[in-house]
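ok so I'm stuck.
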Amino acid sequence: MLPVFTAAEMRALDARAIRDLGIPGPRLMDRAGTGAAALIARWLAPIRGKAVVVVCGKGNNGGDGFVVARRLKARGAAVRVLLVGRRDEVRGDAADALGHWRGRVEEIADPSGLARGLGGADLIVDALLGTGVSGAARGPVAAAIEAVNRAGAGGVPVVALDLPSGLDSDRGVLLGPTVKAWRTVTFGGLKRSLLLAPAAAQAGIVEIGDIGVPAEEARRGITTWRLEAADVRPYFPPRDLDAHKGRFGHLLVVAGSLGKTGAAVLAGRAALRSGVGLCTIAAPASQQPIVAAQAPEYMTEALPETAAQSLSLEAKDRILALARRMDAVALGPGLSLDPATQELVRVLVRELERPMVVDADALSALAGHLDLLRHAAGSRALTPHPGEMARMLGTSIETVQADRIEVARTFAREHGVAIALKGANTVIAGPDGHVAINPTGNPGMAKGGSGDVLTGIVGALLARRIEPAAALRAGCYVHGLAGDVAARERGEYAMLATDIIESLAAALRALAESTA
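replied:
not stuck anymore, here's the structure
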């Protein structure tokens, strides 16, 4: 997994590099700018003769820009440096970097001057603001951001250094005017906002620039990570020649109600495609024949139902008995919000001893009853979308989305569960406080049934005795990877949840063959 930094963690890393590793601040800045210049030269090859405008602020991000300007000039680029401010206002390491620039510095006092300065550029380098942003950009800097964006909208590629200027380092929200970059070179490691929507859309393609700090030092004390294929591959190892279905677990899917049998079917089929040995779907008695008719590979159980044809509280003892023969349970897809069914869910969450993934209508049953999670008889993995998360917490979707990482981390710690807060770059938190961000998936997965597929995949992993946080990490990664395969084959508009299931085979093959 790749470490993901807050602004404070990045400052602490820089301080340790200076204090403990003996790397002076100016050298760190020089390494950052030199690495960024090398990437830019590769992206715009051949760089010689290209017109590059580096737009600098007065702080350390501007210092990185001065280094980039010097290194690109040495490679033969025609470089102009525009400083939003006065030269005598540049301080510290940035002043040292400016002192090594052998060329003109054009001090920009008004936005019209900046707009003229950007004319004719083959590339704009955004070095206005870095990780120290604490509020919306204002005044000349805001005007400079808008001028850069106008040039970018006109077809000039924009490369941001560390972060697109105006972006909050730690959260996915947009504070105000923000540079829209073609690519971003982020220094030392990923920043949270580069992985969280809508902020991530401002960054374009992100690459990490080396600042010369050893990887083990950079990872020290970090609790937020981005998943890579290598983190997930071990959960899908090659099978032994003498393998049999009993080795790969038996999953019980408790799901379905009148008009919502499709959710149960999707979860069951996804579990089987994900490698579980056996799958049984427990559904209301009137709906069981419909579920059974959809696929021959899973088994079904008919359970007592309410007048609304959803599971009734009388199904409790039967489900508990079934679960004792199983390895894990998936609870929630299509269950309905019937009061009796919701009460059944609460009983099962509290009393069922097997590992359980809780999703969809089962999450709604937990609103106002989160204490059940701490007292649950077995481990629990939750997979809410932002609306379900907000409902459980009694807050707004906007509050959840404003700080997805810390909302998920706090919930997992306080309630002793693993949780995947779904959405673009799903956030997965464990009860130990560690968070992983999933990079796979695409907007085509924003369609009914996709969440039920994830429930089946995670349930299959739990049934193979994989602990809940790891099951969520592996499940979300593979789910998104299958969605990416489906999007390539069907397109984001046309793809269906069933396409994700059918793409699991290709996704698992790609995972096995990957070298990342």
